[in-house]
Amino acid sequence: MNVDAYFVPAGVEPADVAERTAVVIDVIRATSTIVTALAHGARAVYPTVSTEDALKLASSLGRDDTLLCGERKGLKVDGFDLGNSPAEYTEETVGDKRLVMSTTNGTRAFAAAAGAERVVAASFLNLGAVADALEGAEELVVICAGKEDRFSLDDAVCAGHLLRELEERGGEPLGTDDAATAALRLAAELTPDEAFLRSTRAGLALVEIGLESDLALCARRDVFAHAPEMEDRVIRLSSGGSESE
Amino acid sequence: MNVDAYFVPAGVEPADVAERTAVVIDVIRATSTIVTALAHGARAVYPTVSTEDALKLASSLGRDDTLLCGERKGLKVDGFDLGNSPAEYTEETVGDKRLVMSTTNGTRAFAAAAGAERVVAASFLNLGAVADALEGAEELVVICAGKEDRFSLDDAVCAGHLLRELEERGGEPLGTDDAATAALRLAAELTPDEAFLRSTRAGLALVEIGLESDLALCARRDVFAHAPEMEDRVIRLSSGGSESE
User: Fold this and answer.
1) What DSSP string runs through B160-183?
2) Looking at the domain assignment, is residue B245 inside a domain?
3) B182/A152 CB distance under 8 A
């Protein structure tokens, strides 16, 4: 398996993802939240880059069973139904709902991945299931959301742990570009627990706005046994998945 | 000392460097070449982003003592005097010359750093001298050139080795952002020898165009005892420096 990694979505060109399998990672917090929401019964997540697009899409989908979700500067957007904390996405709140979601970094990573053959949403919460879903993929592109176009250590370390798992399963070294090599090296050194997440820039930003409790939720490994996939810009639970939490 | 690092210049805003000391790193090969050129008697290096700007600047400086230098796709630009191999920059060739230089990645990193209080050019060739020059700096920004807006492992590992040296000298941990933390971790694992440089994407690209011999030149540590600085977009040997090769 050959792997290219991008630490921010800004440099990803359509040709970089075409005919390849893309994995999108935004540990703090978009993919952690999306994985949680779908595991808790949401029908689909529609990532949109701007809040304006989110509003338009939600009204065209019909507001009865659609929730407006997302954040700016970490906090729920005014007038939206939900923010970007995994804790908000309970079965009671999101069960059978469509979620239109706009976040600062994560939804841009999905936009950058949109031209790939497959697009899989990954977080620590579903790392093993993502590794299952990637079995047989030959050309992989890992797109980290980063934070405001800058490198995020939490995403890079998550990418590295995913690649380690793929390498162990495949029984041979992956073909890696510089960024994927770096991610593997970082994962060999860094354990993704709550204290680690708190030390990152994204983690510190959450602590500052009083959302520290999200970090423990995002640090859990393999609590959901599904790898959501995006098709035609809609993210859904892949048919093979099941919830293990 | 607080350190922010950028793995590509694309995301660097003027406010990110203002009133701070910036270090520019392009191991393969711009800063390795610039450091070599100045150590070998070049009077000054004028980094320019486009080859058109290089041509204009060279003719306004006067072509008698000015050399046009730089590469595209690794190879010397048609009509230019020199490419981007450190080996070309001998005392005989560059002594007392002004060098107008345009490279694919390195000169963009200098452009991104231009608004900083000080801008220092670093490579493995002069890492110790750069650490000397940074003594007393409180707010440091490390700008890696990367490769075509993508992460370059050689630059990141060089940044990490510089930060390790600063940390050892200072006797206390640096305050690091996510990227600087990652650079430190990578440097703890990766030794910057010729084989390592050959394994990077930039190194492989040099091998492909027959310039593999540059890698050994770029991998040497501390062969020059000066830290060139850029002022008003001109890079010169800092007054305190002396040549140790």
Assistant:
1) HHHHHHHHHHHTS--EE-HHHHHH
2) no
3) no
